[in-house]
Amino acid sequence: RSARHWAKAHEILLSDQERIRRMHLLRYEDLCANPTATLTELASFLGLAPEPLEEAQSVHWEVHNLHQTAGPLRDLNSDSISRLSLTERDLVRAEAGPMLERFGYGADALA
């Protein structure tokens, strides 16, 4: 159900993108992998100085995560995927495979 919802939400996003004059896609994985570049790009899109956004990356955020602890922003996808069974991974691929590909999550995303 979650994979189907994710795929549908992103289908709507792509559909809406055709009617939106300005849109910036920010991926969680990009933010985690390269926060400075991602935040600089976002600041540029918004017409803001990048420094205040870049400063945010040094904060240990108390975000909802697997461990319920404050810490640096990091990609927790592999932790979540590792808890899925092979059957569940196959179901996710069946429900969301094309949209996963469209958003840059290759065949190994659920490996």
How would you explain this protein's 3D organization?
There is one protein chain. This protein has 111 residues and is mainly alpha-helical. The chain has helices at residues 2-17, 28-33, 35-46, 51-55, 77-82, 86-102. Helix 1 (2-17) packs parallel to helix 6 (86-102). The longest helix has 17 residues, at 86-102. The two termini are 20 Å apart. The mean pLDDT is 86.
Provide a short characterization of the protein structure.
This protein has 111 residues and is mostly helical.
Task: Indicate the multimeric state.
Answer: single chain
Q: Are there runs of 5+ residues with pLDDT below 50, and where?
A: none
Tally the helices.
Answer: 6
Rg of Cα set = 16 Å
The helix/strand class is mainly alpha
Question: Which features characterize this protein?
Answer:
single chain; mainly alpha; 56% helix
Set down the secondary structure blueprint.
Layout: H1 2-17, H2 28-33, H3 35-46, H4 51-55, H5 77-82, H6 86-102
